[in-house]
Amino acid sequence: MEHVIVCYELQHGSIKMATNAAFVDSIYQYVKASSEYQDDFAGKKTVVVLDNAPAHYQTEDRITKHDDLILLRLGSYYPMCNPIEGTVHSRIKSFLALGRDDMLDIGTFRTLTERRMTLLENAAKHAITCITPGLVARMTVHCQRAVEAARRGDDMEYGT
Known about the structure:
Elements: H1 17-33, H2 35-41, E1 46-50, H3 59-62, E2 69-73, H4 83-98, H5 100-103, H6 112-128, H7 133-152
Parallel strand pairs: 1-2
């Protein structure tokens, strides 16, 4: 895998189905307009991977239809194929563990909740940097191997 385009957006609060569908539409537009796509992938399909978060329900019905857009939905609970499970979540937890004392120090914030929300936002900004083209390439190979093992009926181990 030579080129990978990584798209993300940080949101406050719950993500609704319409918001998610709009994001998928914006991913499609961003990819199609990118120089990477124009130079190396013109005419190829764009694949967006979705897990089973509640905001992802009905995505297929809510997005703008394109013949060259594939929505790939992960199985009900398939963390082996979801880089968010093993990378972003663990980075967020590590960031928050290092700032444990800050969670209880209100500092200049009006409320403890406001302080905690700021820490969570900072943790998300820190963690999202781990989603790189290299990680996506490694996760692609990892997922291919996991799917091949599942097809063979091999026992699956989480965390390996």
